[in-house]
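Entry for S-adenosylmethionine complex. Fields follow.
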Amino acid sequence: MLREIEYLKKLAENGGPEENQYEELGEMYKSLNQRRKKGMISEEEVMRIWQALPDIYCTTDTMQGYVLMKPHGYSGDFVVIERIYSGWLSPKQHLINWDRFFHCQEAPRAVVNRKKYFIDLLRSFNPTDAKREVLNIGCGPCQDIVEFLSAGDSQIFFECVDYDKDAIEYSYNKIKEKGFLNNVEFFRENAFKFKPSREYDLIWSAGLFDYLDEKTFKMLLTKMLNFVKTGGKVVIGNFSLDNPTRDYMECGNWFLYHRSPDDLIKIASECGVAPEKISVKSESLGVNLFLHISR
Ligand SMILES: C[S@@+](CC[C@H](N)C(=O)[O-])C[C@H]1O[C@@H](n2cnc3c(N)ncnc32)[C@H](O)[C@@H]1O
């Protein structure tokens, strides 16, 4: 462990990783995680590395520190996601290079792409059509909806569900400030307990199903399929097996169920969806997949 600590300390002394050092730093995370996975080192030993550099890793003043600290009790909370969307950099000058490294990784870039993916889906509704209803499960910071609605009048009405009261409060205030409350209703609920009172043209969920094992994924999907209008669709984001950032994330205790297109197709089929109604797409990096189910 000493080798990694010395290496990171040296980087820190020189102002954090520069672009030409990203590959080497990425390799360090990779080798660390591979050894952890093989049982050659324990979670505690990995944690001790981060604790040896508290300024970077035991603080919410850096992206990686925030991920490790989990101030809301879980990885990928609305603050992390919002920081990813805005390309947030530490207010502390000497820590900025660590955040630049973070944002350069494929996974956060895929998260930014997934916001665009959702916005493009919303734009594919014909604006002159009758009012459309969209359910957003695990809505987080709602930046996608804010950006979509900011582009002009919309006939879309959103219901946003999240079980984190801070996420709901944050997003409610943001939507209110922008004057979009007529287009959005919030529900502070666990998605598994949420009882929709209508059917939707689109049910969207990104950044939630990849935290669910197969059994719970199927449970939530089966429930949601009952609330899609005929002609409507469910679109679910899930990280792909091809995620070059996986080792870095897992070193930061950020574990997801990565899935292949075939895994997603199999899950949908086993929920009773006919093969011709299922397709899997991805954002441009191929890191975030989207399971499409049409009704
Ligand atoms: C990674 S964030 C993604 C946010 C948003 N979909 C986006 O892509 O910008 C996941 C969100 O899902 C919420 N969440 C996780 N499990 C949930 C559950 N069972 N019910 C409701 N919300 C949940 C979390 O609180 C968090 O805000």
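NOTE: Strands lie at 132-137, 156-162, 184-188, 200-205, 228-239, 278-282, 288-294.
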